[in-house]
User: Fold this.
Amino acid sequence: MVETKGLNLNELAKHFAQLHGRRNRIFQDIGPFLKMLCRVLMEAEELQDGIRKNKGVEVLAPTFAKIVGWTVAVVNYFGNSFAGQTIAYWLSHKYPPGGFAYCGQARCGCDPAARPPVNLDSSLVTEAGANRSLRSLQQDLWRCYCKVNTGHDNDWMMGRLYAEITEAITHTMKMSASDDTIAHLEVGLAKELCDILAWTCSMASMLGLDVELATLEHYSKCCPDCSEIPCRCDHFADLRGQSKGASNQVLTAPPEWNLAVENQPRSGRGGGAPPRGGA
Assistant:
């Protein structure tokens, strides 16, 4: 008989996390991050309601922050590792700073009905692109896609955001029954999350709202629901409470946001993301 040392359950738990943790997140335990994606959908519904009621940016800003926050919660559930790459990498892969992934132009001019195949070339991912701030991402998207989307209104853009959230949820629900590889499923989810962030930035651009500032204002000091760091909310109902830490600061885009953009964001017009099928 092989002699063994005393079994350390903490080490055993760590071993199984390393052995099967990645697999189980994909094929067994989709519940937690599926709930997070449903929260993204709920916040999008709240955002749409606020926009239709012509709420000001100071009212809409926390909802934008929550969409970002819950999307990043899914990212963190995966340890910010999707096939060995971070979400920032996949954002730069799908939305490169220097041009549109379909036509490669700095300002997209594709015909949505006859655009070329998407060019998701890993060589386009630069260190600067993979380390962009949320504000830089918003600026890059607006530079590239403003001309394409200026003919669309808020409802159309919200429809695109809804579509991307729904695609992420659908992708998640199909994963446990898929015979695809873990890496491929992770990359697919990462790209859906990238689309959610991109269209959130685009919707904010339409309203002249700075997503990064909104997110930092809502979350940087403490949990807006329990006012603690780390969060001590102990049941799900707490997360529907009125935010305690948010201020009434008007979170409009800063003056330097212009950056030679010909058409600035304006309420009711197009934002900074590609049309249907562009992501």
